[in-house]
Amino acid sequence: MKKYFLIAIISFVSLPALACDICGCGGGNFYMGLLPNFKSAFIGLRYHYVQFYTRLNSDATQFSHNYYNSVELWGGWNLGRKWQVLAFIPYYYNKQADDDGISYKKGLGDITMMLNYQLMHTRKINNKGKKVEQVLWFGGGIKLPTGTFTINPNDSTTTLADINEQIGTGSTDFLMNTLYNVNIGFFGVSTSANYKISTPNSSGYKFGNKFTATSIAYYRFRTNGISISPNAGVMYENTAVNLLSKEKVQFTGSYAVSALAGAEVTFNKIAVGISLQAPFAQNFAEHQTKMQLRGVAHLTFAL
Asked: Residue 13: pLDDT band by 50, 70, 90 thresholds?
């Protein structure tokens, strides 16, 4: 398919830059999700999966299936009662199948570290005798350019397909994060908002800033010493357009609204969780790309 769409990114000011995976959904993305309950520290593995399908409006024979997989080492540490450190180290294994064949990309992604401060933590008993607990965290972080970004976007043969296939962004990016949890008895709601501020990489390419907001309701019950928490919620994502030398790159920028459903199971200090996410509103590459399914699973140990 690339042979039909070798329109260079450098020429996007006057011409549209096209490629199969034009959505811009590759490496460098960050997802917080539900954090496990822990008193001092936790460490574990998370598996992420997301699938996209692209068919160009201008030529229906040009298509692409993109499968993004990552295994992520994640951990958290409470520093006293007010501070919390989080770290995320992803390894990607991505697959693209299009009308030209199948290609793979794998490697270490961009490492993210965050520091949160507890702004509020209250406990009380309501008029129905149920415990009401509220916790509010606010913090920030940094995403390091540890993933590979090996192409030159100013090269006349570079396409958006080449950009999207990169494991990392090649840039140091900054994050702001807020997390609010409220529990009433065994029922709870976790709401988070994250904003990633991207910077240009050494090639002058800047991935769009990204805002993500998630609200997840859950109910916790215990049976035979096992805690089970089914959950459901909604997630909104909005990514600004990419820039090359401060000029907009066509067919980048997107939004998606997804429904979430999953469950968390905890036994002693071991937690297992799974979440499936299906979009019900989205716009990638002027509706030429569709996100089909996304999922997250983890195995975590409290320390």
From this structure: very low
What residues contact residue 291 under an 8 Å CB cut-off, 6+ apart? 23, 25, 50, 51, 52, 256, 258, 279, 282, 284
Q: What string of H, E and C letters represents the secondary structure of 60-125?
A: EEEEEEEEEEEEEEEEEEEECCCEEEEEEEEEEEEEEEECCEEEEEEEECCCEEEEEEEEEEEEEE
Query: Does the pLDDT at position 213 exceed 60?
Result: yes
Q: For residues 143 and 168, what is the distance between their CA atoms, to the nearest angstrom?
A: 10
Q: 2-302: which CATH topology?
A: Lipocalin (2.40.128)
* Antiparallel, parallel or unpaired: β 173-184 and 187-197: antiparallel
* 21 vs 159, higher pLDDT: 159
- If we measure between CA atoms, which residue out of 195, 163, 166, 165 comes closest to residue 178? 195
10 phi/psi in degrees, rounded to 5: -60, -20
pLDDT of residue 154: 72
Give the start-end residues of each E strand in the chain. Answer: 41-56, 59-79, 83-98, 101-108, 112-125, 131-143, 173-184, 187-197, 205-206, 210-219, 221-223, 226-239, 243-244, 247-248, 254-267, 270-284, 289-302
Please list the residues that pair with 196 across neighbouring strands.
175, 210
Can you tell me the distance from the alpha carbon of 87 to that of 77, in angstroms, rounded to the nearest whole number? 9
Instruction: Specify the 3-state DSSP secondary structure of 4.
Output: helix
The domains of the chain are located at 2-302
